[in-house]
Design brief:
Length: 539
């Protein structure tokens, strides 16, 4: 029963079926450090550097260090709202649960399902793409580093094959199957593996940062030249890259270029509150979610800033602007991790340390999107929108095994679609930002439509205004700015592609239409799904 409602729901009498949601059966396995790592992984410092520097040449005059600060400021209201509502309603499904309850019996089911379905579609896309990143930014460079260290062209060529479309699909698919098994085994298993992987990943990040800080420009250039040559590339590779980037480097500061370049920093920090979707599996949610979300944002922002400054210090703007387009005689341009390894080369130990530690940054978006999709599927199933089988939780491992297997199949499909260019890195990000607008509006309404729940959580006010409403309004406004960046960016904006427009505009509309159909069908059978919004579900 909704905390603000009377014991007898006024509309239940004419229905043949009364809604009662079951407990999820999930276990509270995650503590503060687990949630901190979880959210750091979903922002991802290492991949952030790759994407930021990959786009450097497209924004002459843009300040990438400043984009990190802009992006961080824009997402703070999201983190405030999500950490607060995760504490007040710590349930599997996160913002789906909040929106569907806050918006009331008429709008709640429609908007809640729209939010959930949009995030599920985005998660399906984002299960496969990280497997491509793992193959192309993790395994392929690692093999080239080993090839350089041992003088084996066979290993270097193996790395080139893994980077190819066929290699990426095969290797990424095999690892996706392996990770699906880990997801089936349970949250505790994943959280344990996550801690060890995060520790190793951070060691590599610190080593890389220290190497950059204590390396001069001349030494970096010489190391890069030697590494490219060891792979069978051209002589004087650094100078060639610098020359290629010359025309776009050295421009005066441009506020417009910086504004649009923020798309890549936003892509990193926008989703650091994703732990809300496993809210029912978090211990002491008020403290844990607050520390995990804001700790991860601060950690990621500082890490990105330090690496951006350090890389530009040793390489210079012209080098990085030309690295992707310069003809170096290689199958693909050296990645961030290879630039660090080059400072050790030739060294088998250096290749192992940098290759293995960087690997643990490349795949981590995948399991988090598993959690997001499966917990939303579970919540929708328990609320009566989807078949009951999707909410079945394995009694031994405490995992929604059927939902996980479905996610694995969609992950394999999205891996293929990503590698073949049908979907892109930013596919459905715009649609997700629209969901932040909806959640922001819900936060504004929360103290008024669920007054008792809000009061039970402390009912904080500032100058007489509920603080959650203030932050919700700010989230709504800032999310509109984010939407403008992702829509209008002249390099990667969705307005540049008709298919991206169809996907990002069509996905929420499709979700809304499906919600209306499901609600109508269930009502015709005597079940009012609006009654799901009459209670905060048990866990």
């Amino acid at each position: 029963m909704r905390p603000d409602a009377s014991p007898t729901h006024p509309t239940a009498s004419h229905l043949s079926k009364i809604y009662t949601r079951d407990a999820t059966g999930l276990r509270k396995e995650a503590g503060p450090f687990d949630i901190f790592i979880y959210n750091v992984n979903n922002q991802n410092i290492a991949l952030g550097v790759i994407f930021l520097f990959g786009g450097l040449a497209s924004y002459p005059g843009g300040s990438f260090a400043l984009t990190v600060l802009i992006a961080t400021l824009l997402v703070i209201p999201i983190y405030v709202v999500y950490s607060r509502l995760s504490a007040d309603m710590p349930r599997s499904g996160g913002d789906y649960v909040w929106v569907s309850r806050i918006m009331g019996r008429k709008a709640g089911p429609l908007l809640g399902f729209t939010v959930a379905a949009t995030w599920i579609m985005s998660a399906f896309v984002s299960i496969g793409a990280p497997m491509a990143f793992m193959a192309q930014f993790g395994i392929a460079p690692f093999l080239r580093e080993l090839g350089s260290a041992t003088g084996s062209l066979a290993l270097s060529h193996a790395g080139d094959w893994v980077y190819s479309n066929n290699g990426t699909i095969i290797v990424g698919g095999l690892f996706l199957i392996a990770f699906t098994i880990v997801m089936l085994v349970g949250v505790r298993t994943y959280m344990t593996l996550q801690r060890y992987a995060f520790f190793l990943a951070c060691i590599g990040l610190v080593i890389g940062l220290l190497c950059l800080v204590f390396t001069g420009h001349t030494s970096f250039a010489a190391s890069f030249d030697a590494y490219v040559k060891s792979l069978g590339g051209v002589d004087g590779a650094f100078a060639l890259a610098e020359k290629a980037g010359g025309p776009t480097a050295g421009h005066a500061f441009s506020a417009k270029a910086t504004y649009y370049a923020s798309i890549w920093s936003l892509y990193m920090v926008l989703f650091g509150a994703t732990s809300c979707y496993i809210g029912g599996e978090v211990r002491q949610p008020a403290r844990t979610q607050r520390l995990g979300m804001f700790g991860s944002l601060i950690f990621t922002a500082i890490g990105l800033l330090l690496l951006i400054i350090a890389l530009l210090h040793v390489g210079g703007e012209a080098f990085f602007m030309g690295l992707g387009s310069a003809k170096l005689g290689l199958a693909y341009a050296p990645t961030y991790n290879e630039l660090i390894y080059a400072l050790f080369a030739p060294s088998v130990v250096g290749a192992l340390v940098m290759g293995v530690t960087f690997f643990f940054w490349t795949y981590v978006w995948m399991p988090i999107n598993y959690f997001t999709a499966t917990r939303l599927l579970l919540a929708l199933s328990l609320d009566g929108y989807l078949p009951r089988s999707l909410s079945k939780v394995n009694s031994r491992f405490g995992t929604p095994h059927i939902a996980i297997l479905i996610c694995g199949l969609f992950g394999l499909l999205s891996l293929y679609l990503f590698v073949t260019g049908v979907i892109s890195t930013v596919t459905l990000v715009f649609a997700c930002a629209v969901m932040f607008v909806i959640t922001g509006i819900a936060a504004v309404l929360y103290p008024f439509t669920m007054r008792r729940t809000w009061e039970a959580s402390g009912a904080k006010r500032f100058l007489g205004v509920p603080t959650i409403a203030f932050w919700g309004a700010l989230q709504t406004v800032f999310s509109l700015i984010v939407l403008d960046i992702f829509w209008a960016d002249p390099v990667a904006g969705i307005s540049l592609s008709s298919s991206n427009i169809i996907l990002n505009v069509g996905a929420p509309i499709l979700a809304f239409v499906v919600a209306a159909l499901v609600i109508a069908i269930r009502r015709s059978g005597g079940t009012d799904l609006g009654l799901a919004t009459a209670e905060i579900p048990v866990e």
